[in-house]
């Protein structure tokens, strides 16, 4: 079974660099739009009996990139591909993993089912918002982490006065993993979300006074949570040299 790397339009630079790292070419495809805005995909080489790796992040514009991914997968399946693996570095709707207030959609599960229905048999993704999300995927899931690469980019801690900070309760598990990796203590900023882009903080749990914070979070939309967390850290006496 031969392998093919096929990419959508979400991140052409990432696709090109991935192909270069693998010493492979990108399969030829054409993505166009009809006058009414509908997306049309056309794979311009044979995928029959191929092991296809379909690279497409569902980052903003999420709906457009997601639909493109679904159509590409369906085209591969109908073209006779032996298997389609979706490589989705950023998985949109990951925060919608449960019902918080009542009659809500569980967006993460809807997406996972749609991907499976379009013929994606396996998904490779990085640092899902919650490890519990693995349970919503009908397809096989390879859940990777960028933590070792990011930690290596930081270099060794400058001194023992660092502290890893979770900007809210949702990132505490991630912060604990960073703390173990860097052998640093962990602190938590207590936060309440007021609206989609406004938050309020209620103090810091953990010793941050005189320490240099390393704030870790898995996704950012407006920066409101990070800005509020940094403000709370400075009020609690942390050093102004903050790394995010």
What would you note in describing this structure?
- The chain is of the alpha/beta class and 244 residues long.
- The chain has 6 helices and 11 strands.
- It has helices at residues 12-22, 62-78, 107-117, 147-154, 172-182, 224-235; strands at residues 3-7, 29-33, 39-43, 51-55, 83-88, 122-126, 140-144, 162-166, 186-193, 199-205, 212-215.
- Strand 9 (186-193) and strand 10 (199-205) form a beta hairpin.
- The longest helix has 17 residues, at 62-78.
- 33% of the residues are buried.
- The mean pLDDT is 91.
Strand order, main sheet: write it out.
Answer: 1-4-5-6-7
Strand count: 11
Listing every helix as H and every strand as E from the N terminus to the C terminus, the arrangement reads EHEEEHEHEEHEHEEEH
Shape: elongated
Question: Alpha-carbon distance between the termini?
Answer: 43 Å
Number of helices: 6
Radius of gyration: 21 Å
Runs with pLDDT <50, length 5+? none
Helix fraction bin: 25-40%
The secondary-structure class comes to alpha/beta
Query: What fraction strand?
Result: 15-25%
What do the pLDDT scores average to?
91
Oligomer: single chain
Query: Could you give a short account of the major beta sheet?
Result: 5 strands, parallel
